[in-house]
Amino acid sequence: MLKNILRTSIAAALCIAGSAFAQSYPTRPVVMIVPFAAGGPTDTLGRTLAAAMAKQFKQSVLVENVGGAGGNIGVMRAVKAPADGYTLLLHHIGMATSPALYRKMDYNPLTDLEYIGLVADVPMTLIAKPDFPANNLKEFIAYVKSNKAKLNLANAGLGAASHLCGLMLMSTLEADVQTIPYTGTGPAMTALLGGQVDFMCDQTTNTTGQIQSKKVKVYGVTTRTRVASLPDIPTLDEQGMKGFEVAVWHALYAPKNTPKAVLDTDVKAMQEGLKDADLKAQLAKLGTEPVAANRQTPEALRTYLKSEIDKWGPVIKKAGQYAD
């Protein structure tokens, strides 16, 4: 009897303490880890989201760029962080592709983090250096198939969205070309603009400005519908590349065992932040928008992450591109 009373008292005390902590949280700046270099598309989205969530928290949200190993170093930083609500992780589709890309991983994306929700689906664009010979998608496909031995395709590193889109592109065209990995999207774009590489596939958050200023050639967007910020650019699907669809989803996570009351605060801050007019305007300029409200939940993210792991595993294994 006494033991039961003690257990009940302890549980009640912990519940009260957790509730009090949640009511005061956050009392200091929150760190949002972005597992890629500054200046890239995920970093751009992260800083936009951080500013919107800071309004909800009434505390600063500081973006910390922790790049390397296709995002895995940054993920591990989040996995090992204290589960107190002061560390968040913004990651993209790489959370679903890493299990197939890496022979050995120190974390399990399905069990080692808490889910907050999906943030945005970012379309991608197929672009080429300014003097690439092809002037439209039909010419691009023909030229790549005829010259695949001498062409190269840039990406932002193994596991990056540009790498994944490139894999699907080569599989669709049945034309393998040499891939040139860079340490991030910024260096890859610089190489493309300078003519050191021939073409690449990258997110609208990184390419919209270059397309609008006509610094690159563009052959289409990778979603089934056109992008509002690039209304004159047709999709690859409508130009005959039927079924080609790659959208880079981004989601927010927290360290495992973060108290539920704190997670609830994070979920609310993200959801309200995604309604922010400044955030919506900034994302629109970058060719994207927040996901629908029913996807901005921990449950939706959990289900979607599992489905994406199942989707990308066979594509990556077929390509045979792995990292140790």
What descriptive keywords fit this protein?
11 helices; alpha/beta; 19% strand; D-Maltodextrin-Binding Protein, domain 2; ten-stranded mixed sheet; single chain; 324 residues; 2 domains; 44% helix; 10 strands
Please provide a brief summary of the model.
With about 325 residues, this protein is α/β, with parallel strands linked by helices. It has helices spanning about 1-25, 40-55, 70-80, 95-100, 135-145, 160-175, 185-195, 205-210, 260-275, 275-285, 300-320, and strands at about 30-35, 60-65, 85-90, 115-130, 150-155, 180, 200-205, 215-220, 245-255, 290. Strand 5, helix 6 (about 160-175) and strand 6 (about 180) form a beta-alpha-beta unit.
Describe this entry's structure for a reader:
This protein has 324 residues and is of the alpha/beta class. It is 44% helix and 19% strand. The protein has eleven helices and ten strands. The chain has helices at residues 2-24, 41-57, 72-80, 94-101, 137-147, 161-173, 185-193, 204-212, 260-273, 277-285, 298-319; strands at residues 30-34, 61-65, 87-92, 113-128, 152-155, 178-181, 199-203, 217-221, 247-255, 289-290. Helix 2 packs antiparallel against helix 10 (277-285).
* CATH C-level label of the largest domain: Alpha Beta
H/E element string? Answer: HEHEHEHEHEHEHEHEEHHEH
- Do you know the CATH topology of the largest domain? D-Maltodextrin-Binding Protein, domain 2
The tally of helices reads 11
**Rg (CA only):** 21 Å
In terms of DSSP E residues, the strand content is 15-25%
End-to-end CA span: 56 Å
CATH superfamily of the largest domain: Bordetella uptake gene, domain 1
Percent range of helical residues: 40-55%
The coarse overall form would be: globular
CATH architecture of the largest domain: 3-Layer(aba) Sandwich
Instruction: Give average pLDDT, whole number.
Output: 90
